[in-house]
Amino acid sequence: MFADLLPDGTILQGQHDQYRILGIIGRGGMGAVYRGERLSDGSTWAIKEMRPPIEAAPEEIAENRKLFDQEAQLLQTLDHPNLPKVVDSFEQAGRPTLVMEFVQGKTLEDKQREMNAPFFQRDVLNWGVQIARVLNYLHSQNPPIIFRDMKPPNVMLTPEGIIKLIDFGVARTYKTNKSKDTVAMGSAGYAPPEQYGKGQTDARADIYALGATLLHMLTNLPPVPLQTPKDGSLIKHNQSVTPEMEQVIIRSMAMDREKRFQTMASFEQALLAVDRGVIVPDKRDDPTMMSMPAPVLNNPNPNPNPAPAWGNPNPNPNPAPAWGNPNPAPAWGNNPPNYQQPVPQPAPPSWAPPVQTPAWSPPPQANGPICDQCGRMNKPNARFCAGCGAAIKRAVPKLVITSPRAVWELALTHFPCRIGRRDPAQNHHPEIDLAEHDRGVASRRHAVIEQQGDHHLLIDLGSINGTSINGVPMTAYQPHHLRPGDRIRIGDVEMVFSIE
Fold first, then answer.
1. By residue range, what is the domain housing residue 424?
2. For residue range 439-457, what is the model confidence (pLDDT) as tens digits?
């Protein structure tokens, strides 16, 4: 049996504030979670305490205390929209306690149990992209954080369709030069072979577990331990599953981790490619090759109502008119970016700024990269030196993004790179999602960064509140050649472009 739970009204003294217990949310094998009120401002938080059963063995209690402390330590160092925010941790009556964001909603396990049927592919894609992004964030930490227990009960879904990962008890940092994990953790069916003590887990363990989680959501059947699904097995249980989606799941759950997606970013790109209707080739891990190619302007059979590569820019049936000419003529010279004009808009205001010709047009790429090892000049797209065989090092464009909530660095590896606010109802997930960062200023489809050769173009997509570059407002649909040090501002968010 459990020791008596904290009664309603109990006041707890934390490190940073006091909290009042309002009621029990739930309890598990080694703890309980309460709904609590922070006394300084009356806000609601989840209060998680370790509370083992009276009959628990000392060794079991010690191991769970270690996991609880590990979760508290990890979450306090992280800041991501799909992770619960931790604001306090302390001990009370000898029990470790964690105060964290109160997440409204249900776990994917609860939703699956209520529905008792497979979910539509479009819903699972929406959840999968969000999960892949937060796992990629964890894997990008130094050292990388491996979640190790991805499964439906550890994923909360809010009423707004936002995913939150919960239960970091068995997450761990990746340790270099270590052949295996000290303890096998995870859940049967979702854990890959290497997580059973046969090797050290890395990011590819989470890739397997996410694939198994999506498999469960798509079939309403728990994954069979250590078994890769067969061709046709998902489609047999769910007619909304496409062959492309099935192949993504099969690849993610390969027994040999060398045959899975090698990074969570490439897994995310594969899911996005399925969402856009693009066939994902087998054994291709170059994320840039998985993005849908944007249509060009010179189409011999133009669609009278073309849609841009990043989706319908005005899902709202009564959108505010975009400023300027909604169908401007190409203004970037003889080398247009790989970009298509938006669908026709409502009539614009009677005034409109004139279409301007940009001062810059990217020059043709004449020379290729020079090898650091032997000094040979190579072809523009060479990955290895033709002289000595060494890998060609390429400069990586990056953004340092600063918002009122956080500062983070993002390597630009996938193009087009969309900037805006996510819209789960439309399965819209921009690569740079400002939903939690800009206080509502950014449009859902605000701007995009395109790549043309070694050059990068920023294009405002007719956003409501506009984009500025180095303090100067941009003209909608007018590409700007990004240079190192350029400062992009959208509301309270500033992004500094660099190439390293």
1. 397-499
2. 788 999 999 999 887 789 9
